[in-house]
Design brief:
Length: about 300
Amino acid sequence: MLALLLAGALACPATGLSVAVLGSGGPIAEGRAGPAYVVLVNGRPRLLVDAGPGALLRLGEAGIPPETLDAIAISHLHVDHAGDLPAILKSANFADPPARLALFGPDGRGLFPGLAQHMASLLEARSGAFRYLSDWLAGPQPRLVITEVASGDSDSGHETLLIDRPDYRLSALAVHHGVVPALAFVVRSGGQTAVLAGDQSEFSDGFDKALAGSRPGLLVMHHAIPEGPGQPRGLHRPPSAIGQAAAGLGAGRLVLSHNMKRALDRQAEGLAAIRQAYAGAVSIAHDGGCYPASKPE
Ligand SMILES: [Zn+2]
């Protein structure tokens, strides 16, 4: 009953694998929540992928208490993808009995601490910025169970299995997002596959190689830049490279999220560039939209 009500709040189907877009925007205050996705299996919310600013508000609107999720998976530790994490943990602190959560994200490199150090900088009992929430990390069996995924080789295409349950599997693979340690996530359930590509440039060779021809029913890619010169192509795929990835994977449906005004302002040109390579269905996500992962035909 609960699952049906939750699915109704998000207009997600009660069967199969689907992804609800809680936040379809990027880092700039342009009227959309930051990237945040709920993966539903048979109508039941199981995973939160990314926790951008506004994710907690949208979880509440969707009627999803964060402590009911199996895990939170963070693609990378930019503010627009991880900024709401402490707020989500604070909300889950009100759960009775006390909540446990699994948290997945990248290891560290250069400017970026790994997920464990990132969370310690927030929650550590003596020096954490939000040390009043340090009980999440306390004791021999902390309630926040942190797993870092190796992100250093975005050419390898190696998939790391993170969750293996009877009804679904979650895995991660490294992608290229400039100097930022970054991951894409893949969810497989009952013959259906959803790929959440995260922020990635067109130099994510391992992503293209590992998933080539895998025919995911749903591919969520980030629409952060328009086509043409002067754009940060070392960080993000332009629409032409999004279309090439969608075609290479054989995606059943492409959903564009992380929609930034600079890309939306040139939407027609961008969609035409995608169409050069990819002939499948394309949707521009909005906050609260739900997208089923169709089965390959
Ligand atoms: Zn981003």
